[in-house]
Amino acid sequence: MKKILIIEDDAALVLGLEHALQGEGHETLTARTGTDGYRLAKKQNVDLILLDVMLPGMSGLEVCKRLRDEGNKTPVLMLTSKIEENDKVLGLELGADDYLTKPFSLRELLARVKAQLRREKAGATAKRSMKMESFSFGNVVVDLKRHEVFKGGKLQSLTHREFELLVYFIQHPGELLTRERLLNEIWGYEVYPTTRTIDNHVRWLRKHIEPDPDNPRYVKTLRGAGYLFELDKENGKKRP
User: Fold this and answer.
1) Are residues 150 and 86 both part of a single domain?
2) DSSP assignment of the chain, as one string?
3) Whole-prediction pTM value?
4) Has residue 127 got a pLDDT over 90?
5) Which stretch of 17-21, 107-111, 131-135, 149-153 has the lowest confidence by average pLDDT?
């Protein structure tokens, strides 16, 4: 059983979400304002946050930003009635892991929830499969044990999803990785609103690891195919 925090001001939607999630065996907590939701997220140890964008008191975007700025890495699934792509991208830039546009089906919601709840287990499995505690290339050091990335000795502020993406690249050097494969392996399901999600995350990741993000040296784009994580011969050092 997982504990899920629902931050949503639509009473009818909250009831529907609670019914669906509790039917899957999960425990739910609810908040009707952004301020109350933010306080609950800090106080309670939850496994997932369902976060509406438009909330009284404090917007969902502000809630997400504050939690991420404070180091809270709880998966966040944003709910929005807006259709503009910029709103969705902004949510992801602020650290949200996924989003759903209203109206959505409960079947799709539960699929997204299931995928998010698998992320910690998947991340732990990935670290074990690496059989090392850190990995370095260029002036970048990836601390797999602490989930930290340093560039030139400076700690980088990666979201959990960006870190997972980097680890997956490290696990598959020199291998063509299609957007569909990355969505399936990292997000945990094949159907996703748009593969542009991968492009956005790769763009943000490059800012943390590339000497020149506009001219990537490590995470290269193979136009029409996907991405390739390429290391120079002197790079790619494992550390036990």
Assistant:
1) no
2) --EEEEE-S-HHHHHHHHHHHHHTT-EEEEESSHHHHHHHHHHS--SEEEEESS-SSS-HHHHHHHHHHTT----EEEEE----HHHHHHHHHTT--EEEESS--HHHHHHHHHHHHTHHHHHHHHHHHHTSSEEEETTEEEETTTTEEEETTEEE---HHHHHHHHHHHHSTT--B-HHHHIIIIIS-S--S-THHHHHHHHHHHHHH-SSTTS-SSEEEETTTEEEE---TT--EEE-
3) 0.60
4) no
5) 131-135
